[in-house]
Give the backbone structure.
Amino acid sequence: MGRTHSNAFLQTPRYFDVPYEPVLKAVCARNADRVKSFAANWGYESIETDWRALVARKDIDLIDIASPNDTHAEIAVAAAGAGKMVSCEKPLGRNAAEAEQMVEAVETARVPNTVWYNYRRVPAVVMIKELIDQGKLGRIFHYRAQFLQDWTISQDLPQGGEGLWRLDVGVAGSGVTGDLLAHCIDTAMWLNGSIAELTAMTETFIKERKHTLTGKVEPVGIDDASAVLCRFQNGSLALFEATRYARGHKALYTLEINGEHASARWDLHDLHRLQWFDHRDEGKLRGWRSIHVTDGDHPYMKHWWVPGLQIGYEHTFIHQFADFLSAAAGNQSASPTFRDGLATDYVTDAILKSAKTGRWERVTASATATAVKAVGQQATV
Amino acid sequence: MGRTHSNAFLQTPRYFDVPYEPVLKAVCARNADRVKSFAANWGYESIETDWRALVARKDIDLIDIASPNDTHAEIAVAAAGAGKMVSCEKPLGRNAAEAEQMVEAVETARVPNTVWYNYRRVPAVVMIKELIDQGKLGRIFHYRAQFLQDWTISQDLPQGGEGLWRLDVGVAGSGVTGDLLAHCIDTAMWLNGSIAELTAMTETFIKERKHTLTGKVEPVGIDDASAVLCRFQNGSLALFEATRYARGHKALYTLEINGEHASARWDLHDLHRLQWFDHRDEGKLRGWRSIHVTDGDHPYMKHWWVPGLQIGYEHTFIHQFADFLSAAAGNQSASPTFRDGLATDYVTDAILKSAKTGRWERVTASATATAVKAVGQQATV
Amino acid sequence: MGRTHSNAFLQTPRYFDVPYEPVLKAVCARNADRVKSFAANWGYESIETDWRALVARKDIDLIDIASPNDTHAEIAVAAAGAGKMVSCEKPLGRNAAEAEQMVEAVETARVPNTVWYNYRRVPAVVMIKELIDQGKLGRIFHYRAQFLQDWTISQDLPQGGEGLWRLDVGVAGSGVTGDLLAHCIDTAMWLNGSIAELTAMTETFIKERKHTLTGKVEPVGIDDASAVLCRFQNGSLALFEATRYARGHKALYTLEINGEHASARWDLHDLHRLQWFDHRDEGKLRGWRSIHVTDGDHPYMKHWWVPGLQIGYEHTFIHQFADFLSAAAGNQSASPTFRDGLATDYVTDAILKSAKTGRWERVTASATATAVKAVGQQATV
Amino acid sequence: MGRTHSNAFLQTPRYFDVPYEPVLKAVCARNADRVKSFAANWGYESIETDWRALVARKDIDLIDIASPNDTHAEIAVAAAGAGKMVSCEKPLGRNAAEAEQMVEAVETARVPNTVWYNYRRVPAVVMIKELIDQGKLGRIFHYRAQFLQDWTISQDLPQGGEGLWRLDVGVAGSGVTGDLLAHCIDTAMWLNGSIAELTAMTETFIKERKHTLTGKVEPVGIDDASAVLCRFQNGSLALFEATRYARGHKALYTLEINGEHASARWDLHDLHRLQWFDHRDEGKLRGWRSIHVTDGDHPYMKHWWVPGLQIGYEHTFIHQFADFLSAAAGNQSASPTFRDGLATDYVTDAILKSAKTGRWERVTASATATAVKAVGQQATV
């Protein structure tokens, strides 16, 4: 994630007319050799190996958190306390309790903030949001989303360690629920409003794996798969599913929303395409349209190439960072804010709870966000 | 359904080498004018307007039930009691209690029987069954299926009446759960074994509709949408969903099964295609294969056209009837038997119950079927 | 082909309200045992082993020709001479000279006639015709079609013999040009008008194959592949290609037409789908629509199943036969007539000529068809 | 194109371990205000408004040509003469005569060179090259490619002027033949070897357009559409087509190659997918695989994101520039070299000639490239 964020910091001003020129002042990580190499590659001016030192620096206006989940809350609270703007990888906290502290910190400090639920910045997904807001779907009946992967099926994969902290429940907080399903939930609530109640099941298919830190075979604490039935506040029904055991799918995040008049579908494996069905089309000619979202009048796309030429994954981070800089110049946060991130944590907490109780659980409602106020005059990273 | 069944009776001996030559002796319906016209068109030798008269005839060996759900049990029990073979449209009963009587009747009478869950005879679906039985998928982790339609979204549609008895809960027994989800459940249990427990939600989006019989606006008793989380006996997780409110989908029955080594997908809108992913393929060349199931070595396809030329919906009934005739000659029933149909009714009953209780419900296990014994020597319709 | 035709004779009156009830009076083939078996299976009343005897029978009103290409002309001329209606498999003649005799015969005799270019009766293809006729495409710029197969790649396949007469140039007349490309040409001229001029290349990849009749390895006379550039009378440009050496394609007949305002695509591997792009759609929402051509208001589809349930290959023959019976009742021929079939033979002749000369060749224009006049009062087969 | 090239200069060292660190020394264009703005945005150290001044500078090691086609030859010859490495947008020259001078210049000067036929660097296309080289396709029978656009259908579009020089034959040299078809030809010869002979047609649908420079309506000199039949040296047949009048297609470059054992397909609208059919797969399970080319072992992809996350259009330029820098460090040119670009110009010249003569034309064979020798020690842009 350090790479996609750094790429966004560098690329955003080349393609977007933003109010700040990001300056890559410092990058921080525990391993000095590796952080030096990273800094050299990406052009950071300096390095730190203790994040507290980074937070203490006066020449830093924005702290970006791309470290494992168990570090999010502590860093974010400190950064906000030091008056820094904060951008944080998802999920916001390992649970809602952590996320509440983070929201409290940024709202008290009134610092611009955002959570990197980057799929809100896929042009095709933004189009769905616009179509819903224009009323083109009418009353919503159904929402369904899934995030399917297959990279942890092997019993030989250890938990923890290099690139595998997502399998260590202590670090990650949960398994696919916080990692993958959280993306589905964030987009869903952005598009379709709040979730009222849900029932869920989770499963850990491989019960024990070698732990990298202890060197021993230990119980696996994360959920390998997670599935949810729920009702939104608007009366629509939804199904959500995430798993790392769906053979054949690499990162297949799909979503579909069915309204009275129209429906939309999208998936991450062809992120530049929007599937759109409009019942108001002439009857005999109704069909699902495959819209190649690469025209100049499509969201964000005037900044890129000519029609027909697609963008990739990392562009979603550039879009979000461009929006963040614009918002920050007006002393605002960019969607999704920490408060939005907390709302997702309330849902994932309810999912994990329901998976234990076997009952329908109501989702804690998030209060309305307080508008942030002005921060420093220049955004530097 | 009368047309697809009659078509099967006529077409089967043209394309399959079957042990019996079906003779269309009689067709029965309440409206004499319409049944005469139907008989003339399809070549039935005679008509009846009272099914009891049909059952009483000595020249009839097989009673085929294609009437609304509320008639299934009574006719089937009488037909079996008269020693007739019985084929019945799905769902078997409006609920498991009715279905239990029907199973009791055919098993006591030892008459060959089958339920028209016709999608078990789609060549691509049969291939999935074969691949699972060959062990090509390995341990199963996930199953998901949905049956999406959009034809009842209009508030103006009445309940009951010509072609609309499916909206009348008294006749149909339930809404999409018994009509659409039952197909998904039947295929799923055939492919993946028994369902142990489930939790579900249902919804009736349009609460009142004009009733054709009374002429008044009355509460709607059916479920418009139904969604289920469940666990199979083999430890795999599943999601099921059916609705008539998914704008843009006509009859989109889709299913996917994910195993340790391979996965398969299929949908009814392109029923002649099988999607297949095999992790044992050379790594760089792994991908989902779109198999055009029209070759002579594909299930049932040697009876049809040359490779590349697809079959349609009604062929699935022909396949099932060919299998039924072959089974009947050996005094056997054809899959799915009435007992298999009862197993599906146990699941749909549990779904409807869970939708009310909000709890996980265990599914009643169906006893093993008793083998049927010999019936008459000639099958006539 | 005998099966698809016989199926059409039987199925048409079940699904369409036609003015004649076809009676399967006789079927003819040289091998008495096999024709007996065929007659028994399909319900033909009698058999013949000499087609001249069939033509001589007074109780036959329609002669259907489903035998190899080298028999078409002689039988059709005799049948027309005997005052029979004639339906003939494509291509009409092995070349235009044969086809001219056939047209002369049916037009002199004024007997209803048709050529089984069955893809004109695919509902999705009919929709393209309707959309063009309604002016929805505007000025046409491009047409392209291909018919790709891969079943003759093996060197071991003999020429001639059971099911392989298509590889014997003496019987077939040509290779893929007359067999596959002729379909593309027929549809193209129906949709886009006459072809003015063309240049072409053909290739025989496997130069020698064992001949079944002589038992010797002999030069292969057919074209294995054929490709054409051409200009239509309306100024549009076109590419055509047919081959039996396109590994991975079973019977992939695809066509696309690009107009000023809209474009349409279709392919035989998913024959129930129409791809449609309309530039007049709202700009941001323009995309190719995948229309599932299974609704009651789609061409021919009110005769089949409910929306979402697809038909197959053989249905195209039923549609053509229904149209033929309706036309015959009005003493008309059904599209494509023998004269239409001749027009295609003029094109395929020009293709084969250009492939030899290396030059652009003008296509012989077919005169306007003379309307046929009344024939017998009852159509029987 | 200035943006995609500049992006490549900046991004390449972030993602690839290259032997040189590109330094953006200067950018040149005639309009001083605009070039200043461009330089500021992309971080060029200085600007020039006369390319001769750029070529004369001692601190420049590589001249990159991204200006209209009529400037390519003069700049490239001067740059090579000054001992600079040269990278040039495609097509190399407006015709082969210009391209020959350019090849002569870079080969005499022995300077590393490359032509930006960037689609050779699409990972899926590279995979096709590898599969062919591994012999997985066997003998090649067919190749077909098309490049379909629809952006010039409006009569109102002028020729020449801002962004429209591609419609001015004096500047562009030709229409779609040099602009779009050249891409198809370059990839085809890379994958399938030399083209021996061809026949072609071109068309200008809109005969007159307002010319921006003169302000008058003038005849259009470019070809709006171009289509080709040809034979490769290896005996395979091919069809090529390019047009800007295919309504509904934005930049649909598609290619397919059919071999004895396997076939591959690819298109630019989903550039991260490879379609692959292997006849050696188990018979019943043969089908076209849709390979999502985003794994670490796919060409170039270990430099990007985790499996499932796609890259976009501009990445192809990064890949080519990374290869160019690596080649240049060894005093080599990167594929496609200027000599490769000349080979494509020989083909496009033959196409335009055949379109006039109506005859098959043989393609001039390009001599084998001379290996380039060492250049300067540091590559700067």
In short: Residues 338-357 of chain D form the longest helix (20 residues). The two ends of chain D are 15 Å apart (CA to CA).
